[in-house]
Design brief:
497 residues, alpha/beta, TIM Barrel, 8-stranded parallel beta barrel, 4-stranded mixed sheet, 17 helices, 43% helix, binds beta-D-glucopyranose, signal, Glyco_hydro_1, GH_1_N_CS
């Protein structure tokens, strides 16, 4: 197979970098998310999520005008999905619970029996196959009824979310030992409110995003505290959140401060309150936004402050740090008078920076995804320096293409190069990375890219009512890494695949 050659080349690279085996306790998994795979959008007592509403109401915002109404049909085909994970020998499968499927009113007054049954089936079957369930409580699909009450901009959402989390912990926590509260608040706060290409599609740049940001920190923290007080002693699990971080590097030497400010805006806004010793907003960002707000005539900062009590509530609410990594950007100071596009895609109007890419970085079919494997190592090094010697779980990493091709050479290469950098980070930089998650188990509904962009280890035929899944070369490659627990892929294992 062609990718065997690639593996052979990687062996020599690894030999130079030192060590090909992953630590014995290191775990490998793959991920999905409810709206992207489940379908069954209106089955039984499930209520509408903001993505059901967004995709139905604004088809023009989705590249192929598609919806997640059926998606991979995983509501019916969950057994097949678990079979795929099992064949690859995965240690864990990360999936998300659809809040409106479990709690159709959004509140815990009524728990859907159907929702309960569906997630219990998945969890129990995974465990039978010796695959650990890693459960995300929120992956972008808020009940629309809560959106109608302001969604992530209503401060009460912190309690709504904690109440939902309590239901999930009490129903499933006897068997689920790794919980991710929120997936990528940067997507549903910054992309949603600054750019509008995420549900709810309501744009309020520089205001809505910061209100949402604060509320996500409180929601995560309250859910964590619920776990701590009511469940931890019996269930003994771990709880954190996952954000997506680009590696951000200075365009030129004179842009170092600009790059550091951008890191604080992208990573710090969702991490400093939780993972730093001081808690609260990253001081540099808090100061800059307060100054800017004043210049703009606001009598207060557009970034809502934390009270002392809130700082204490949020600080330290983690058992590890989860993060998703896909790509990198360069950062430079904006020139005087230069127009600055929206954060986090084009620039940072509040911190006066422009984002870019280097000419030598290869692009993928997703416009935003440039391949920069060393970015994951640099990012891990920065996170360790910033937040200390904590445990890291990489909760997503993967490569986009528009081609359905199962000979996905670029994706194999992407995984190989990123895994190499993770190993270097563990061996050379002594960063405590304990697991890695491939995004994604199978092609699925890629948000505003609809079905036009694919990230799957498995190809899914969306024209086939059966949504047939076919393993790609990347699935075989990843399975061989998992089974040999090494980048030095064992030939015996390859023969068995
Ligand atoms: C999200 C996934 C998404 C992936 C690729 C992450 O932002 O968590 O839902 O499919 O990136 O775009």
């Amino acid at each position: 197979m062609w990718w065997l050659k690639a593996v052979a080349i990687s062996l020599s690279v690894c030999a130079v970098l030192g060590g090909r085996d992953f630590p014995p306790e290191f775990i490998f998994g793959a991920a999905s998310a409810a709206y992207q795979v489940e379908g069954a959008w209106n089955v039984n007592d499930k209520s509408l999520s903001i993505w059901d509403y967004f995709a139905h109401t604004y088809p023009e915002k989705i590249i192929d005008r598609s919806t997640g109404d059926v998606a991979c049909d995983s509501y019916y085909k969950w057994k097949t999905d678990i079979e795929l994970a099992s064949k690859m020998g995965l240690h864990f499968y990360r999936f998300s619970i659809s809040w409106p499927r479990l709690l159709p009113s959004g509140f815990p007054n009524y728990i859907s029996e159907d929702g309960k049954r569906y997630y219990n089936n998945i969890i129990n079957t995974l465990l039978e196959k010796r695959i650990q369930p890693v459960v995300t409580l929120y992956h972008f699909d808020l009940p629309q009824s809560l959106q109608d009450l302001g969604g992530w901009t209503n401060p009460l959402i912190a309690d709504w979310f904690a109440n939902y989390a309590r239901v999930a912990f009490s129903l499933f926590g006897d068997r689920v030992k790794i919980w991710i509260t929120l997936n990528e608040p940067i997507s549903f706060c910054d992309i949603a409110y600054n750019v509008g290409t995420q549900a709810p599609g309501y744009i309020s740049p520089g205001v809505g995003n910061y209100i949402c940001n604060k509320n996500t920190m409180l929601a995560h923290a309250k859910a964590y505290r619920v776990y701590d007080k009511e469940f931890r002693s019996k269930q003994n699990g771990k709880v954190s959140l996952s954000n997506q971080f680009f590696w951000l590097e200075p365009d030129t030497k004179s842009d170092e401060q600009a790059a550091e400010n951008a890191r604080q805006l992208m990573v710090g806004m969702y991490s400093h309150p939780i993972f730093s010793k001081q808690g609260g907003w990253p001081p540099v960002i808090e100061r800059i936004i307060a100054e800017k707000s004043k210049e703009e005539g606001f009598p207060y900062s557009r970034l809502p402050a934390f009270t002392e009590e809130e700082i204490e509530l949020v600080k330290g609410t983690y058992d590890f740090m989860g993060f998703n990594f896909y790509t990198s950007r360069t950062v430079r100071n904006a020139k005087p008078g230069e127009e600055i596009g929206a954060w986090p895609f084009e620039g940072g109007p509040d911190i006066n920076i422009i984002l870019g890419v280097r000419g030598e970085w290869n692009n993928t079919d997703a416009w935003w995804l440039y391949i920069t494997p060393d970015g994951i190592r640099k990012l891990l090094g920065w996170l360790k320096k910033e937040y200390g010697d904590i445990e890291f779980l990489i909760t997503e990493n993967g490569c986009a293409s528009s081609s359905p091709d199962v000979d996905d050479e670029v994706r194999v290469q992407y995984y190989k190069e990123h895994l190499e950098q993770v190993l270097v980070s563990i061996n050379e930089d002594k960063v405590r990375v304990t697991g890695y998650t491939a995004w994604t188990l199978m092609d699925n509904y890629e948000w505003t890219d609809g079905y036009s962009i694919k990230f799957g280890l498995h190809y899914v035929d969306f024209n086939d009512p059966n949504r047939t899944r076919t393993p790609r070369a990347s699935a075989e490659y990843y399975a061989s890494v998992v089974k040999s627990h090494s980048l030095d892929v064992n030939n015996k294992i390859i023969d068995e695949l």
